[in-house]
């Protein structure tokens, strides 16, 4: 018969001074740092790092840690202000990302979508064929969805009716056939290539 396991009992007191140079205080050297200093915690951590590195902790070491942490706080404040200013500058600028409206074939359906990153989008969709790509944004995509609403299969997927095929042919004549070969899954069908 299997005997039940006895619970582990930790005999070590976490606040014991037996295995530490910490003589009863929970944080060493806390008496050397002004309790009202706003950087007190960071200074004490830096002093502790000094101690771990073998530096003898005296008033000069605490002074160095305090100077460094005040400089670090000022540097972080400058960085934060610079980041905030950059974010505000970017928000004030008009959105100038390059947008594309694409026509891809997945199975027997055509997906009309919009993206700012063709490679990432096609990698996630894995189309059988890239039919056409045109510059444009969300308004263009929405207009195309409305134009071909009678052929909608669901969402952004459409049946390849004559009107949609004619539109894709016109785009290919005007902009050229897309030379996209990455991330496609060929199935032996090419709707527009001879």
Please tag this protein with its features.
single chain; 194 residues; 2 domains; 5 strands; 13% strand; elongated
Radius of gyration computed on alpha carbons = 33 Å
End-to-end Cα distance: 79 Å
Shape: elongated
Structural class: alpha+beta
Q: How helix-rich are the residues, as a percent range?
A: 40-55%
Report strand order across the widest sheet.
Answer: 3-1-2-5-4
Q: Can you give the mean pLDDT?
A: 85
Task: State the major sheet.
Answer: 5 strands, antiparallel
Q: What share of residues are in beta strands?
A: 5-15%
Helical segment count: 5
Tally of discrete structural domains? 2
* Count of beta strands: 5
Q: Name the helix and strand elements from N-terminus to C-terminus, one letter apiece.
A: HHEEHEHEEH
Summarize, please:
The chain has 194 residues and is of the alpha+beta class. The chain has 5 helices and 5 strands, in the order ααββαβαββα.
Kindly describe this structure.
The protein is of the alpha+beta class. It folds into 2 domains: 30-92, no CATH class; 100-175, no CATH class. 41% of the residues lie in helices and 13% in strands. It contains 5 helices and 5 strands; from the N terminus they run ααββαβαββα. A 5-stranded antiparallel β-sheet has the order 3-1-2-5-4, sandwiched between helices. β4 and β5 (157-158) form a beta hairpin. α1 (40-52) packs across α2. The longest helix is centred in the middle third of the chain and has 34 residues, at 59-92. It starts with 39 loop residues before the first helix and ends in a 19-residue tail after the last helix. 13% of the residues are buried. The model has no long low-confidence stretch (mean pLDDT 85).
């Amino acid at each position: 018969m299997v005997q039940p396991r006895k619970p582990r009992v930790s005999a070590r007191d976490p606040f014991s001074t037996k295995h530490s140079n910490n003589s009863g205080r929970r944080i060493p050297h806390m008496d050397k740092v002004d309790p009202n200093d706003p950087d007190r915690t960071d200074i004490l951590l830096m002093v502790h790092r000094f101690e771990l590195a073998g530096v003898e902790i005296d008033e000069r070491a605490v002074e160095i840690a305090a100077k460094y942490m005040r400089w670090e706080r000022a540097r972080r404040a400058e960085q934060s202000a610079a980041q905030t200013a950059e974010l505000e500058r970017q928000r004030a600028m008009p959105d100038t990302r390059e947008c594309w409206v694409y026509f891809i074939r997945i199975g027997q359906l055509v997906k009309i979508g919009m993206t700012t990153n063709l490679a990432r989008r096609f990698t996630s969709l894995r189309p059988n064929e890239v039919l056409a790509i045109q510059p444009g944004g969300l308004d263009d995509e929405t207009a195309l969805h409305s134009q071909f609403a009678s052929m909608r299969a669901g969402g952004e997927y459409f049946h390849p009716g004559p009107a949609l095929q004619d539109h894709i042919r016109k785009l290919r004549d005007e902009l050229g056939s897309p030379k996209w070969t990455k991330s496609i899954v060929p199935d032996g069908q090419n709707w527009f290539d001879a």
